[in-house]
Amino acid sequence: MSPMILVALLIVGAMIWLVVYLVNQSAGVQQKVDGRERVELERLRNLIDDLKETAWDHRELDSALATIIIDKIRSHERRGRELGP
Question: Cα torsion at 39, 42, 48, 50 (round to 10°)?
């Protein structure tokens, strides 16, 4: 086999290895981002639940405002269920 062909095969093999390595690294980074996004989403859902409960618990202070807040949250939750995941 010619030395030029051998060098070309080594270069192509190295490039393929590099592409596979970079794709795997990218997948690992994406999983970390997805994990952080899931944590943030759960935190925000907990905040919304807490706001809804707070509005309900303190509705005697301003019942109209509490009703508006609770209705807006419930409407948003219903739209989310209708649209699906």
Answer: -100
Name the 3-class secondary structure at 1.
Answer: coil
Write the DSSP assignment of the chain as a string of letters. Answer: --HHHHHHHHHHHHHHHHHHHHHHHHHHHHHHHHHHHHHHHHHHHHHHHHHHHHHHHTTTT-HHHHHHHHHHHHHHHHHHHHH--
Report domain extents, the chain.
Answer: 3-83
Taking 70 as the threshold, does the pLDDT of residue 70 lie above it? yes
d(CA 33, CA 56): 35
Between CA 6 and CA 15 the distance in angstroms is 14
Q: Is pLDDT at 28 greater than 60 in this prediction?
A: yes
pLDDT at 65 over 70: yes
